[in-house]
Automatic annotation (TrEMBL):
Name of protein: NAD-dependent dehydratase
UniProt GO molecular function: oxidoreductase activity
UniProt KW Isomerase keyword: no
Ranges where the NAD-dependent epimerase/dehydratase domain occurs: 7-168
Stretches assigned to coiled coil: none
UniProt KW Transcription regulation keyword: no
InterPro entries: Epimerase_deHydtase, NAD(P)-bd_dom_sf
Pfam families named among the record's database cross-references: Epimerase (PF01370)
Key words, A-Z: NAD, Oxidoreductase
Gene3D superfamilies noted in UniProt: NAD(P)-binding Rossmann-like Domain (3.40.50.720)
Annotated organism of origin: Streptomyces echinoruber
Amino acid sequence: MPAPRTVLLTGAAGGLGTLMRGLLPEYGYTLRLLDVRPVEGEPDAITADLADLDALREAVRGVDAIIHLAGISLEAPFEKILKANIEGTYHLYEAAREKGVRRIVFASSNHAVGCTPRPRDGDPLIPVDTPRRPDTFYGLSKSFGEDLAQLYWDKHGIETVSVRIGSCFPEPTSVRMLSLWLSPADGARLFHAALTAPDVGHTVVYGSSANTRLWWDLSTARALGYEPRDDSEPYAAQLIAEQGELDPDDPAHACLGGHFVTDPPIWPH
Ligand SMILES: NC(=O)c1ccc[n+]([C@@H]2O[C@H](COP(=O)([O-])OP(=O)(O)OC[C@H]3O[C@@H](n4cnc5c(N)ncnc54)[C@H](O)[C@@H]3O)[C@@H](O)[C@H]2O)c1
């Protein structure tokens, strides 16, 4: 596949979309932006809901690839997750199939495997083929998205890299995030690798920087050509001084998904 140049970025108004809008053009991409909300400072962005299959057909026309970030990014009632994340992702894949888009990068999440116990000292890193154990309806929708991606590869030859993103924010803000942090610059490196690696079929990768306190195995991401350059460790001393080490007896600290397992934050809209 020739390197993609024009990429549809869904969820462009969101936190990660805003970071990637700033960083991905440096890799030579022309971005077409889509979100259900207006994208600040981007009058050409497409304002459309993932429920609108006709709008998605139009949005994917002529793009080389899609980075799919749009959707509910926290826990919500099942009916809302169903519409935005499950049906919405299906609509996007259908539009891609109809219009001949061959590569999608799907924003999956650590919450697809959130009920997996986190490694303790000396335990092996969590492999990418660990059984999925969603911690919320949100995580369940990401698990569905990965299966949908597999189906569209097996049946229709659409390639996907499903990136189980840890926490992509400018800085880690919790002790848990020291293990899961994906710096924005490494996020752009990883998306670029996912867009350009040859013959990915459907590949699942974990999305983190090269953190000293990493919980999961980055080898499938590295196999795409991803070379993370950042590490959360410089933030560790201050965060641990403020918040303490993760308490092994606290159920909110026992699993990969952290407090999503016990007390997930709720989507506000
Ligand atoms: N930021 C992270 O660290 C992180 C971690 C794991 C997974 N993810 C995933 O990455 C993606 C982006 O995350 P984020 O932190 O930027 O979330 P966000 O909530 O800031 O952004 C999501 C965007 O999707 C849009 N959206 C929601 N429903 C839509 C619909 N029906 N149609 C069109 N657009 C819709 C929202 O308006 C919003 O701008 C999400 O899919 C999220 O689940 C992010």
